[in-house]
Amino acid sequence: MDYRKAGVDIATLDRIKKRMSRAVKRTFTENVVTEFGHFGGGFRLKGYRKPVLVASTDNIGTKAKVARLAGIYNTIGADMVNHSSNDIMCTGATPLFILDYLAFTKLDADYIAQIVEGFAKACKKEKVVLIGGETAQLPGVHKPGDFDLSATVVGVIEEGKLIDGSSIKPGDVVIGLRSTGLHTNGYSLARKVLLEGNAPFPLDALVPGTKKTVGQALLAVHKSYRKEVEGVKPLLKGIAHITGGGFRGNISRILPDDLDCVIERKSWKVPAVFKLIQERGNVTDTEAYRVFNMGIGMVLFVRSKDAEGVREKTRGILIGRIVKGKGKVHPA
């Protein structure tokens, strides 16, 4: 008996890591002080008087199953880079570096490399260093072909400049930034409705009313809002990333206890893929807005006098307002 017969192929893992190294190193900047493959990743922090580090971890969830079904592995890394970076940008922080975690029982080596190379490509685009991570073969934990992908991102902000929603006041307004689709949340429900059961939708079938296939709609990459946020950051009083939990679950995380947020649901057009899920699965509006982003992936809170300028710079939509209340979010 040896490790390979027990389910862990060290030689194959070493070959995969060697291929990964080329993509990962391309994300490095002069601030990286360690080599690829070291036991820890070192990053030089400079240019800040009183830096505050901000960190967040997230997971790809069951979007991984859609990627496997479609045989497309080179985009879900970007999902993790963008999702994780968006989360810490809700504090006003600038993403610096990220670590990935990829686990599987048995998966084609080329697929593994595609996942990490896609991850690294997104890091390069978003100016985030892929400073380290873990690629683990775990016999018996995952079914053959299945995999798990997570990421931890670290960013920085100057002390005293944190955006936490505490300055939001009655009369402020909400600017919504469009999503590319489901992003990385709600896939257990979407898969159950569209891809399972007695009459599953083929991935190459068109979403009604669009030129996109179901597969393309479900695998659309989670949008990064870094450009939009950085362009108007000094004007922002609060930022919420609309992920699992929808509008209520995420806006309430930064809303002061004595204020309510009114969201005008008719102020934007809900993308066709969400309508398809609702119609085919008999999903109520209440449930849909609790699970999905419904076409709005991030919301910005600003003073009413700044709204038009922020809307123009971000290409956003005025979707709501702040009123006195009890820390609740109300659809209208």
From TrEMBL:
Subcellular location: Cytoplasm
GO cellular component, one term: cytosol
Subcellular location, principal: cytoplasm
EC class of the enzyme, as a word: ligase
Pfam families in UniProt: AIRS, AIRS_C
EC number(s) on file: 6.3.3.1
Domain called PurM-like C-terminal: residue spans: 169-327
GO BP of this protein: 'de novo' IMP biosynthetic process; adenine biosynthetic process
Residues making up the signal peptide according to the UniProt record: none
Keywords: ATP-binding, Cytoplasm, Ligase, Nucleotide-binding, Purine biosynthesis
Domain PurM-like N-terminal per the UniProt entry, residue ranges: 52-157
InterPro entries associated with the record: PurM-like_C_dom (IPR010918), PurM-like_C_sf (IPR036676), PurM-like_N (IPR016188), PurM-like_N_sf (IPR036921), PurM_cligase (IPR004733)
UniProt catalytic activity: 2-formamido-N(1)-(5-O-phospho-beta-D-ribosyl)acetamidine + ATP = 5-amino-1-(5-phospho-beta-D-ribosyl)imidazole + ADP + phosphate + H(+)
Cytoplasm found in the keyword field: yes
Pathway: Purine metabolism; IMP biosynthesis via de novo pathway; 5-amino-1-(5-phospho-D-ribosyl)imidazole from N(2)-formyl-N(1)-(5-phospho-D-ribosyl)glycinamide: step 2/2
Family: Belongs to the AIR synthase family.
UniProt name for this protein: Phosphoribosylformylglycinamidine cyclo-ligase
Record organism: candidate division TA06 bacterium B3_TA06
Lineage: Bacteria, Bacteria division TA06
Encoding gene per record: purM
